[in-house]
Inverse folding.
């Protein structure tokens, strides 16, 4: 698998960055003009001036919980079920509406490969003229439709297997002889195990594109031993494809239709390349123009180019959740509060709040990396902790590079026995 889906995948990085940034002002203007939610969120922003990553980083982050809250408020008032984020009207321009847990309602428009999954399918080895067995759900959530529309754009036929009914899935695979599988990796293992139990061979199922859950190397190797090359992609119901795996097996390559930032959890501040932080995505979809949408997922940028020859930026993949809010002595403490404390002191390079002890006897320690240690710095930081969180906390000053690069801003190290 050395060919590419299109020439976008191998264009010079400078050319790609210029194209993304050139499209950015128009998408910001589109969101302001056609999305009631972003008209408010981006009020006062001069769209024509958002032409750089630095300008983008000054815009507010909209996180999924805020999107849900706006949708719930609008529905309670008898208004727009999408909370003002969608620019389409019900009818021919919006053939489907989906629901993710919350519920959060998502629109699907009419553009070919609406969720941009064809690129990930191609990287996983699927080619025009093949039949794909799709075991993502076709009801409520958009996963089944996301993958099917990508497969159709690639020129493939799809069997809508959906979830469950394992024996029937095996029978259909044996009789239809699909080239591969789309779905969660765990369900593929269940199907393969069931086929072995039933004494039915599935020799044509030689490749798979999996998503929606972890795909550990152990399961990847287990499938490979049974003749199935499994690849993963990272996508969401809000944004479509974000990144995908290639034959290089070194991280996930970003999709060509999104602009990705990695920020310090709880903030909108970009972190240095290689540091773990929250994945923030700006989509170029005019129907659902999410600007600086916080996924809540942790990841990091990988240095260098992908050995597959694709020139887009790579991320390490999913590395946990960014929402580390915890309750201490009856009070919620948020990552944004830790960031607020750190910002007050130019000497602080990085901060991490550790909550230790036992329930009802917990204690907070703010560990901070500092380039210098002026008099009474620890005491002043301690005062800021109390001012911001309304709780007392200890301060531990550390040399630069002491804290782990794992994206954690709050570590809950308490004992719950």
């Amino acid at each position: 698998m050395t060919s590419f889906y299109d020439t976008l995948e191998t264009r010079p990085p400078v050319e790609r960055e210029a194209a993304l940034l050139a499209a950015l002002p128009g998408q910001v203007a589109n969101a302001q003009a056609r999305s009631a939610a972003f008209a408010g969120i981006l009020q006062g922003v001069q769209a024509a001036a958002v032409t750089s990553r630095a300008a983008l980083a000054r815009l507010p982050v909209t996180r999924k919980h805020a999107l849900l809250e706006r949708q719930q408020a609008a529905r309670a008032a008898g208004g727009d079920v999408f909370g003002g984020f969608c620019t389409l009207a019900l009818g021919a321009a919006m053939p489907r509406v989906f629901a993710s847990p919350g519920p959060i309602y998502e629109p699907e428009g009419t553009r070919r490969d609406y969720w941009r999954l064809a690129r990930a399918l191609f990287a996983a080895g699927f080619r025009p003229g093949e039949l794909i067995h799709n075991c993502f759900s076709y009801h409520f959530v958009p996963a089944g439709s996301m993958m099917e529309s990508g497969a159709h754009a690639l020129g493939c036929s799809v069997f809508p297997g959906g979830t469950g009914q394992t024996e029937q899935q095996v029978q259909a695979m044996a009789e239809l002889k699909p080239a591969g599988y789309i779905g969660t990796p765990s369900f593929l293992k269940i199907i393969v195990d069931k086929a072995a139990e039933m004494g039915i061979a599935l020799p044509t199922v030689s490749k798979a594109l999996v998503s929606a859950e972890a795909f550990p190397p152990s399961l990847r190797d287990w499938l490979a031993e049974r003749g199935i090359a499994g690849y993963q992609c990272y996508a969401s119901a809000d944004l479509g494809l974000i990144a995908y795996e290639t034959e290089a097996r070194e991280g996930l390559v970003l999709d060509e239709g999104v602009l990705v930032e990695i920020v310090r959890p709880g903030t909108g501040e970009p972190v240095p390349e290689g540091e773990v932080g929250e994945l923030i995505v700006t989509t170029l979809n005019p129907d659902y123009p999410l600007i600086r949408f916080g996924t809540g997922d942790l990841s990091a940028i990988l240095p260098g180019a992908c050995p597959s020859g694709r020139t887009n930026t790579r991320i390490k993949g999913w590395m946990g959740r960014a929402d580390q809010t915890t309750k201490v002595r009856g009070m919620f403490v948020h990552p944004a509060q830790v960031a607020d404390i750190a910002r007050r002191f130019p000497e602080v390079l990085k901060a991490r709040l550790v909550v230790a002890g036992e329930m009802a006897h917990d204690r907070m320690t703010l560990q901070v990396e500092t380039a210098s240690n002026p008099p009474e710095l620890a005491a002043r930081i301690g005062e800021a902790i109390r001012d911001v969180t309304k709780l007392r906390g200890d301060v531990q000053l550390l040399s630069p590079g002491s804290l782990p690069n794992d994206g954690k801003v709050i570590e809950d190290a308490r004992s719950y026995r």
Summary: The chain has eleven helices and 21 strands. The chain has a mean pLDDT of 93.
